[in-house]
Amino acid sequence: MLMPKSHRIALLFNANKIFDREVIEGIAAYLSSTRSSWDLFLEEDFRLRLPGIEDWQGDGVIADFDDPAVAAALARSRIPVVAVGGSYENVNAYPAGVPYVATDNFKLIKLAYEHLIEAGLRHFALFSLPEAQENRWAQERENAFRGLMRRDRMEAEVFRGQGTSAPSWDEAVQQQINWLHSLPKPCGIIAVTDARARQLMQACMIAGIEVPEQVALIGIDNDPLARMLTRIPLSSVIQGAQEMGRAAAHLLDQMLHGARLANTRILVPPAGINVLASSKHEPAKHPHVMRARHFIRQYACQGIKTGQVADYVGISRSSLESYFRQELGCSVHDEILRFRLDAAIAILGRGDCNLANVALSCGFTSSQYMHSVFKRELGCTPRAYQDQALQGQAEAAPAPQFQHADS
Q: Is the peptide bond before 184 cis (omega within 30 degrees of 0)?
């Protein structure tokens, strides 16, 4: 039996970034679903090294062209190259002669903006990155935000801040705090990445600015690491990065078999939003309720009790209970329990896990108590909920359709 030819393919990505990792996962998913035989070359330590790539004796390359050094290194490549990166408002900004798969920067920002509008907000801002060649995608997201603000006859409030490094951490945080204080409240803020959103979340915590009552925050990337590093679960727009990887692999596969696809462009829209606590803006009428919910949101999973919440707010327990009943129709304990339940639901939806550990990490006194709360509030056990969630993911709708730039 004649074995199919194996092609040597280089993947030029910085797999320290969640976006690049998910593109790689999409490439792997494409290969597992086809009969294509590729030998993949990827830096083992996830750092991209380019010297000598032009002399590499391979058959094809898929590369992250958001990095200008990568685009420059492959400008004279004699083997097929497929570029992956952000979309551009100006079509002349795309690399000439190279098929390009892009995340739709305009739709990423538009989806985040519409989510904040639906949350009842009327003031909006964008937290971006300093202008630089390697941050062109961030500037494109700025352009999208400015365009939406012009369309809706609002002033575009954009803050780039500075890049963070150990010597500049304190200065960068103080700049963010000063900017946050200058914004009208309540305000919805879109951050160009989850990493940027996490930084702003920290600045809010330091400055005593309630999230999401005063600042509702949403990032882009749906990065699990960013969520783990924030006290308040971070809402995020989910890029179609895995779909981009599948599309890029399909294009390269066609090129390896003789197809001419120069200047082909595919725009991949976002896959949706993971809506969590940071953007669930619910205007509170009373400042004591707003302050209490801010404390609960941060510490519900650490076993806090009603008395601790009242101490933080600075009023008696009975007064706080009265305000909660008037405004929310529930007790302080009910609100704490709701956040613990939401946290457990989020963990169970991610896959198989030990229920005792879930109960402990979410602030329940025991797995049996968590079991009774699930039965009372959701009508099922934690394990049954997890099974239903995983089954729903397996039966999810088809991936988003491609939108060709020339259509």
A: no
Q: How many helices (H) and strands (E) does the chain have?
A: 15, 13
pLDDT in tens, 140-178: 999 999 999 999 999 999 999 988 776 788 899 999 999
Residue 352 zone, left/alpha/beta (φ > 0; ψ -120 to 50; rest): beta
Tell me 211's DSSP state.
T
Chain centre to alpha carbon of residue 1? 46
Beta-carbon contacts of 30 under 8 Å, excluding residues fewer than 6 positions away, are 36, 245, 246, 249, 250, 253
- 163-to-68, 131, 172, 197, 239 alpha-carbon distances in Å: 18, 10, 8, 13, 23
- How confident is the model over 148-158, as pLDDT tens digits? 999 999 999 99
pLDDT at 401: 33
Q: Are 223 and 194 in contact (CB under 8 A)?
A: yes
Give residue-wise pLDDT tens across range 345-361.
888 887 768 899 999 98
| CA separation, residue 333 to residues 24, 341, 359 (Å) | 44, 12, 17
Q: What is the pTM of this model?
A: 0.77
> In this predicted model, what pLDDT tens digit does every residue of 85-102 receive, in sequence order?
999 999 999 998 899 999
How deeply is 2 buried, as exposed, middle or buried, from its count of CB atoms within 10 A (0-12, 13-18, 19+)?
exposed
Supply φ then ψ for residue 218, to 5 degrees.
Answer: -140, 135
At 253, phi and psi to the nearest 5? -60, -45
* 336-367: b (≥16 Cβ within 10 Å) or e: bbbbbbbbbbbbbeeeeeebeebbbbbbbeeb
